[in-house]
């Protein structure tokens, strides 16, 4: 199954090589038909998310979210990538936070071979962890500040994003 995914992925990227800009986010879905023990056909789908850095290098984003995550590129430079994400709090639509959302940023630092050497996730909203953004300020054309509160602990902090420098700083 993994070989099929890799072949489809390479085919998809190769087909779009000449017309695309890098980096970019690529999402694709694979559906499988399986037979259960009652001899019934069941279709299962899996959604894959990749950050394409160049025609030869991609990063699988599943480690930074669940299968229903949505990613977008906020800022990049030669060795840093800042992604925004949002995803459902739970994949099962029952119980607390069944309709909740998790939002935030994924910060990746890369080495010269475009391998991830550091990654951080910064939540700006979370139903599961009771985190919410209390205010958002545009400091200048390149910087945004989010004031965030963790409701159960009353801990407050700020996240400052600089899109020109591709940096994200958490201050207390």
Protein described:
This protein is mostly beta strands. The chain has one domain (2-171). It is built from one helix and eleven strands. It has one helix spanning 2-15; strands at residues 24-35, 41-54, 57-60, 70-76, 80-88, 101-110, 116-126, 131-138, 143-150, 155-162, 167-171. The strands form three sheets. The chain has a four-stranded antiparallel β-sheet, with no helix packed on it. Strands 8-9-10-11 form a four-stranded antiparallel β-sheet, with no helix packed on it. A three-stranded antiparallel β-sheet has the order 1-2-3, with no helix packed on it. A hairpin with a 3-residue loop joins strand 4 and strand 5. It is flat, with a radius of gyration of 19 Å. It starts with a helix and ends with a strand. 15% of the residues are buried.
* Percent range of helical residues: under 10%
The major sheet is characterized as: 4 strands, antiparallel
Number of helices: 1
> End-to-end span in angstroms?
46 Å
Count of folded domains: 1
Integer average pLDDT: 83
Helices and strands, in order, run as: HEEEEEEEEEEE
Query: How many strands in all?
Result: 11
Helix vs. strand class: mainly beta
Task: Give the overall shape.
Answer: flat
Trace the largest sheet across and list its strands: 4-5-6-7
Low-confidence stretches: none
% residues in beta strands: over 45%
- The Cα radius of gyration reads 19 Å
Question: Which short descriptors sum up this protein?
Answer:
8% helix; 11 strands; 4-stranded antiparallel beta sheet; mainly beta; flat; 172 residues
